[in-house]
Amino acid sequence: MPDKNLLKVLLVEDNDADAHFIGKALSHKKFEVVRLADGQAALDYLLNSEEEIGVVLIDYKLPFVDGLEVIKESRKKGKNYPFIFLTVDSNIDTAVEAMKAGALDFLPKIKGYTGLSDMIEKVHRIHRAIIDKSILEKQLQSRQKMDTLVTLTRCIVHDFNNILTVMEGNISLLLLNDSNFTEQQLDFLKNIDRACGHAVDLAKQLRKINRDLPSEKINIDFYEIAHEVFSLLENTTDKIIEKKLEIESGEFIINANPSEINQILLNLGINAIKAIEERGTRPGDYIKVSAENYIQKNSDRMGLQNGEYVHILFEDNGKGMTEEVKRKAFDPYFTTRTQGEKEGQGLGLTIVNKIVREHKGYIYIESEAGKKTTFHIFFPKRNPKKKQKLKKT
């Protein structure tokens, strides 16, 4: 099993004598050296490896694919490894070409390998600094996008509330004279009234984006929210797309804000149905919600505190996501829609992610292009006997 304390060095060298001397120069305990003897094997390894590689030492002349092509192809595929280019002599043109291709340093073999250890450590530090700078730049860009979002909400939330006040007032007046309506018409009015209630809650959430206010959370039956959202989607979207609710009433109690959970499921549901429609609706299409108990015992990549959680799975069999789309899905303003389309501006999943994190939960996406997509969401679990009602303000 690899020692995580060692710096992994991939040596791509077909000459056994050179490989021996390099191995000897790196024989102390700082490095774990893995050797490959041809360029094609190295390229396959670099493109498919999920292990962290500290530095790649690569010879220029290799069987099948030369060292320069390995560097160029790996960078073209988004694999920016720290390369040290090995050359037979001190030809400056070759070294410059290697640096242009993406190598961070070069070493003529005729100079020997006495300083190789220090060079590897230096290149590794430079590479880490480049990565850290890139991460900071992305965080800054994300912060700037969120600042733009804050400015936008300040402009619209006041007018949005005024419109909702008029709508709610008129619906309330209509409901006072309920004898004038059929039972079906009353159901429609009550659905509109409930939707206005959710819209009011949404306006509150938009204000919270400006002020980072915590939402009020209570113990709720997840089934009740999911049933309400799926009933709405069943009545307002293509009936060919089956809406599967694979949980039972009272089975999963979570500590959450009901309107925000409604918003999460509605966002995911609408996105899923659009993904199916964009691929082309056909019999057998579906969106599905299921859940299971999950116990967090030790820290992992999700960063959840130890305890019991409800693991919610929101699945659709639409067009799936590429790795790039998955990576950017929660970024503000990222959207797969073409410019000019009116179906949203890419804020839905950003808000979903924000809500989940505010509930001390976690969300991630499992998907492949052309296959189904599953959103995995974790919320703290509560005792089934302790359901509560949200206080009205």
Characterization of this structure:
The chain is of the alpha/beta class. Helices cover 47% and strands 19% of the residues. The chain has three domains: 7-114, Rossmann fold; 140-213; 215-393, Histidine kinase-like ATPase, C-terminal domain (Heat Shock Protein 90, 2-Layer Sandwich), CATH 3.30.565.10. It has ten helices and twelve strands. Strand 4 (83-87), helix 4 and strand 5 (105-108) form a beta-alpha-beta unit. The relative contact order is 0.08.
Distinctive features:
single chain, alpha/beta, Rossmann fold, 3 domains, 5-stranded parallel beta sheet, 12 strands, 19% strand
Please provide a brief summary of the model.
The chain has 393 residues and is of the alpha/beta class. It has helices spanning 16-25, 39-48, 67-76, 92-101, 116-176, 183-211, 222-236, 258-279, 323-328, 348-358, and strands at residues 7-12, 31-36, 55-59, 83-87, 105-108, 218-221, 242-246, 253-256, 286-296, 307-316, 362-367, 373-380.
Q: How much of the polypeptide forms β-strand, as a percent range? A: 15-25%
Strands side by side in the biggest sheet: 2-1-3-4-5
- CATH architecture verdict of the largest domain: 2-Layer Sandwich
Could you name the CATH topology of the largest domain? Heat Shock Protein 90
The general outline is elongated
